[in-house]
Write a structure and sequence with these properties.
Radius of gyration: 13 Å
Largest sheet: none
Number of domains: 1
Structural class: mainly alpha
Strand content: under 5%
Number of helices: 3
Distance between the termini: 36 Å
Number of strands: 0
Helix content: over 70%
Length: about 80
């Protein structure tokens, strides 16, 4: 069975948690919904499409980042 690199999955989760702590309460619910759906995506494609899994997850977070920067009041600054 092929091993999957966990870094593409763990790093965006930390981005969501950090940005949720810095954001206002209406955005907080959206971030936790995206957090739960990211775990669902990882679980859904874990066994079936192992080589394609990281591509789907990364593309999901690219779309999330684009929507965030279009709707956010201030940009995310990660030290």
């Amino acid at each position: 069975m092929m091993a999957i690199n966990p870094v593409p999955f763990i790093y965006p989760v930390f981005i969501i948690i950090i940005s949720a702590l810095k954001s206002s309460p209406p955005f907080l619910a959206i971030y936790f919904i995206l957090l739960i759906s990211s775990f669902f995506i990882i679980y859904l494609y874990w066994a079936a499409i192992t080589s394609f899994c990281s591509f789907i997850t990364v593309s999901f977070f690219v779309v999330w980042a684009a929507l965030h920067f279009m709707t956010a009041r201030k940009p995310i600054i990660i030290m």
